[in-house]
Please model this.
Amino acid sequence: MTTNNKDSRAAWATLTHDSLSNSKNTKRALTTIEFLTLNVALLVGNILVLFNTGAFASVSLHATGDLGVSPSHAGWMQSYYFIALAMALPVSAWLAMKVGEIRLYVWAMIIMALASLLCAVTDDLLWFLLGRGLQGFFGGLTIPLSQTLLMRQYSPASKSFAVSLWSIAALSPFTLGPAAGGWLADALGWRWLFYLNVPLPLITAALTWALLTEQRAVHRNKPFDGTGFVLLAGALLCLQSVLSQGQDADWFNSVQLMITALLGLLLLTYFVIWELFSSAPLLNLRLFARRNFAIGSVMLSVAFMITYGLLSVLLVRLQVVAGYTSFLAGSVLLPLVFLAKPMASLIHHIVNRFDARLLVSINMLSFALYCAWTSSYDFFNRGGWFNQPLWSQILEGFCLGGLFVPLTTLFLSDLSTKRQTQAVELGGMLRIVGGSVASALFGVFWERRTAFHHGRLLEHSVNSDTLSRLHSAGLNDSLITAKLAAVANQHAAVLGLNDTFQLSAWLFLGLAALVWFAHPVPPKVLTVKQEQRQIELENLIEEP
Model:
């Protein structure tokens, strides 16, 4: 490894693992009140970044309606946020070394607040997408920083508690986020989701700056792969635009989309070649030569894509098809709270006692069971909107709690300490990219299956007996046509949703089998320091 590459990776190691250093620190000790205040400030900042993913999923239809665009644009608003969040991760370490960790964290929070204000006040889709992109990028910069700044305030004996505290926000996009966002949209209006994102980041930035000013430091002259960053950003932006606009623009019948797709593939190819031969690459793609990393990171990305894709499709379709309010749709996911975090804590403690492949396979099989179970919902049974999906949502909470830890253990298993930091960076980015394509891919599949079932339902339901009954009820031909089309469309949408969950069940079964192609990860005994470091790495994968 070259000197430049070592310097660039040392920056990421500083962000993710500086809290484990035993070297003496000359910073002023915080008083009890200051310590508690800093904890609250950093945790609120971390929660805000992740809250903006799940909370917005349940209010996206309000946003598209108010901005005067079709519901299909809801996927754009989430996808570009994820893309920007993904691009922030490989930049965060270099920027922290360049301008200082405290200064970067404070400025990122300030710009995130200004981006939220732009989203709250604009009536133009392009400006709104710009605001979402800025939210995602500058919010993403704070994710590793917030962990580092928090860990430094704890003694070595207390770091396990600190990591658990910091990871509280990890599952908020799936649990409390949708219900809270839905309540804001129904009670105050969807723009209040962004108005609230203005004062809170500013308060967090002010408190962090005031309490940690003596720890500011600036490091310069560290290498950064600017070419790789531009190539990757361009490739992701082009390919995501094709996915987002394909359904509306009729895919490759659109010359513009064909050109955009070709450009994206060329940029991606050039990026891969550039990274493989760069002395200080943005991402270490050579890690894919390691079987466990390749299988584990791909599985993590695909599993998160399926999970988030199902969440976004379910939230939107419950509102469009079944007439749920935003709050009711988000509340369907509240049972996830029952097992998600407790299960994650349990897996943290037992993951090193078993072969990680076994835990991953059980988790994938459980996800498959959840998807098959959910495909049998009757979403039109209004009296059972909560109690019907209750148990399967609890099962999904069990699955989510066991998703990240064993997969992270799998793809870090045969890597050195230095390579593990690179793997976390690359694996975390791949997971976020999986989330960015989820809404678009699953939305397209649902719409195609809905159209298929719509035609079949009309074909079998429209006959002379049905028409004569409707005529005898006093309906004319135009009303009959409209009524049959509406009923067929509603039921076709539910059948399409069922097909989406059934497809996901088969995909999870495939992942459950794929993990056994990885090398075994035998049980091992870790020291306290090694265990703390592993948990920090796992949480960095889990958070974005």
Notes: The chain has a mean pLDDT of 79. DSSP finds 22 helices and no strands in the chain. The domain at 284-447+499-544 is CATH 1.20.1250.20 (Growth Hormone; Chain: A;). The chain has three domains: 1-17+29-223, 226-277, 284-447+499-544.
